[in-house]
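User: My collaborator sent over this chain with a note saying "see what the structure looks like." That's all I know about it. Can you take a look?
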Amino acid sequence: MVAKQSTLRAAAVAEADYLMPTGPGGGQPDDGQQPFDLDPFAPGSLTRQFLTYGVDADGNTVPLKTLRITNNTAQTVYPIMRDPNSNTVPGNAGVGLYDPYDPPNMEYRGYIGYKQGGKYYFGLKAGESILVSVPLVFWNGARIGIGTDGQYLTPTGPPNPLTYDPDGHRSIARAAISDDTIANGVVMWYRARIPRAPNDDTED
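Assistant: Without extra context I'll predict from the sequence alone. Here is the result:
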């Protein structure tokens, strides 16, 4: 327990702001081209080009499901939702069993963050809460990892225990808002072709 407390104190001292990356193919922090999606519910939106969001491919409205995440620590943390949509229809590996609209066996993630000074950052600050509208692909079997160090979120060179793919699809969308959650919250939605989970040695 003492070692764990020391680790958290060290992370708090080294705490920094981590910018969300650029659009597809961009592996560096913000160059003015962060892929912000003003209305992810709109037909043909940046988000809906790679993720079922709000309305499915048959035109049905997906019921609203929200998730509230609260940081009750004294430092910024880095929550990431993750699901590979790996359960498929028996005899049809190309269709998800619980989500038939998003392609199965891919890496789906939702990185929690916030907007500040016209730019978008990873993380949830100390004492803050965020409300997220959860896309269909995360409804069954999804996980949430909560990291205490943001330096491994998006680097393209090894080591990268979070197995981030700079060529994956990405969009940044506003989080939902309630009376007791932050108004500047965002989520970076992400889909990569290979369903590769974070390594066992991640610090989440």
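A starting point for your reply to your collaborator: The radius of gyration is 17 Å.
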